[in-house]
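Support request from a user on the community tier.

User writes: "When I paste my structure tokens into the form, the page sometimes reloads and wipes my input. The last time it worked, I copied everything first. Here is what I submitted, just in case something in the input itself triggers the reload:"
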């Protein structure tokens, strides 16, 4: 079989990153190898996101560029997967007739057969059918394009929370937890292939196992992952504040591999807005959980997501968010301007916030956060951090890059370090988005903060 090249453009969240990797694995038996160069690809897949209006626009502007490529190379196969594909189905061909395959979020395992149908001259194939029985839940040998130390592992799909602004439950279906045995087997396989850090992913990992009753809840799963030999670090995302249990909070003091970082989206600091968002907690609940986390793990980094300009958000609501941000002192957060999404309840809410006010609120929060983040980064100057080496720095090829347990990027020089090693690095300078470090010599003897020898396993 002639070898072919596939290039996948991934947009959106970690689920899509993981799904794109699954696509590479599924296409390998058809003799497709990944290429990082668009013009060399025989098959281009866009794995799309629909979380905000802007994300959807990006898909169509990219498809416009690909239309020109397809005119020059009619053999080029183009697939559109992910959330916009799930949302639009056949309608996508009206705006982008040059697309060959539209496949949704539920049937990745059917992708190879869709590609074969195009090879057999079929046109405009759509598969947005519901979830199959295996799909993402099977474990296959990883396909890496470059040497890697970190990987995502899906532990659950879908979401049952129906926050009123959010399109995810409509595009990813109801919550389903993957079997613990499959998760553990996949992580062992990743570790065998050089991975040292896994991030367990799902829209609400805290409710893992609640519905499917695999006899295992999230803290118990974490414990089992913690026991995997050769694995150095565990992260997870996303946590829903309403389901953050004491058992999970305590895992931060009990599990030596669990990194000292939690991403805990708050969305708003106003109880009135939180209620209209259907988030299921109050600002007081949230602040209590933050205090508990910090009492269990004082060095924990806390990050969040915040939406400004939710319909009906008054100045007093916004000020409550400003106040919460100042009380918590997040290490950083992602800031979003609310946008209407198809068929979500909030799209029909009245009192939409004008764009100019959204922008003003956005700028005010990002200015406050910029100060906080820089201050927190500066506080790390002079400390020694355990850095997991991830590869060459994008800014300078002479430098390596890695992350601290608290999820800060550190660039540093060390000509002997390899991807996958955990090294002590002294922080010498702090910037808004990264740190500059200098490798501490004699790291063979360095005993990491978790009590383990910080050497590549
Ligand atoms: N399941 C995760 C993340 C979902 S999407 C969670 O519940 O936290 C990531 C973020 O996008 C959300 O946390 C929210 O802040 C933002 N978001 C979702 N829908 C949005 C919308 N319609 N407009 C603006 N931001 C949105
Ligand atoms: Fe969307 Fe809410 Fe589910 Fe997150 S928890 S994916 S914001 S519905
Ligand atoms: Fe986007 Fe779908 Fe993820 S809408 S954020 S890619 S679940």
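"...and here is what came back when it finally went through:"
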């Amino acid at each position: 079989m002639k070898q072919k090249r596939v290039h996948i453009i991934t947009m959106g969240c970690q689920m899509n990153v993981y799904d794109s990797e699954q696509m590479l694995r599924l296409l390998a038996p058809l003799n497709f190898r990944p290429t990082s160069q668009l013009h060399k690809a025989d098959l281009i897949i866009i794995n799309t996101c629909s979380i905000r209006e802007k994300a959807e626009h990006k898909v169509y502007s990219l498809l416009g560029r690909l239309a020109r490529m397809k005119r020059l190379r009619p053999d080029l196969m183009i697939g559109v997967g992910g959330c916009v594909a799930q949302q639009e189905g056949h309608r996508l061909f009206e705006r982008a007739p040059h697309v060959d395959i539209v496949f949704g979020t539920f049937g990745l395992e059917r992708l190879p057969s869709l590609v074969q149908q195009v090879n057999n001259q079929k046109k405009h194939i759509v598969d947005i059918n519901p979830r199959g029985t295996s799909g993402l839940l099977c474990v296959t040998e990883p396909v890496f394009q470059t040497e890697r130390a970190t990987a995502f592992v899906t532990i659950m799909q879908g979401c049952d929370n129906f926050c009123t602004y959010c399109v995810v439950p409509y595009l990813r279906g109801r919550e389903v937890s993957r079997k613990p045995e499959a998760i553990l087997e996949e992580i062992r396989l990743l570790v065998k292939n050089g991975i040292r850090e896994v991030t367990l992913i799902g829209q609400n990992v805290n409710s893992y196992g609640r519905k499917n009753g695999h006899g295992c809840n999230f803290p118990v799963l974490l414990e089992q992952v913690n026991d995997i030999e050769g694995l150095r670090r565990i992260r997870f995302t996303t946590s829903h504040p309403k389901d953050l249990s004491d058992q999970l909070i305590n895992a931060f003091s009990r599990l030596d591999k669990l990194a000292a970082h939690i991403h805990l989206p708050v969305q708003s600091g106003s109880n009135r807005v939180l209620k209209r968002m259907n988030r299921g907690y109050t600002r007081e609940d949230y602040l209590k959980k933050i205090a508990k986390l910090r009492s269990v793990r004082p060095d924990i980094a806390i990050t969040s997501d915040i939406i400004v300009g939710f319909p009906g958000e008054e100045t007093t609501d916004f000020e409550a968010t400003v106040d919460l941000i100042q009380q918590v002192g997040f290490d950083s957060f992602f800031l979003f301007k609310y946008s209407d999404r198809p068929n979500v309840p909030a799209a029909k809410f009245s009192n939409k916030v004008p764009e100019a006010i959204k922008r003003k609120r956005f700028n005010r929060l990002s200015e406050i956060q910029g100060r906080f983040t820089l201050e927190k980064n500066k506080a790390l100057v002079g400390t020694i951090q355990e850095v997991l080496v991830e590869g060459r720095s994008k800014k300078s090829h002479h430098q390596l890059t890695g992350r601290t347990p608290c999820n800060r990027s550190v660039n540093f020089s060390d000509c002997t370090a390899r991807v996958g090693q955990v090294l002590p690095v002294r922080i010498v300078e702090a910037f808004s988005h990264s740190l500059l470090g200098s490798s501490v010599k004699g790291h063979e003897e360095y005993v990491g903060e978790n009590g383990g020898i910080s050497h590549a396993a």
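Agent notes: The reload is a front-end session timeout and is unrelated to the input. Residues 444-457 have pLDDT under 50 and may be disordered. Residues 355-379 form the longest helix (25 residues). Escalated to web team.
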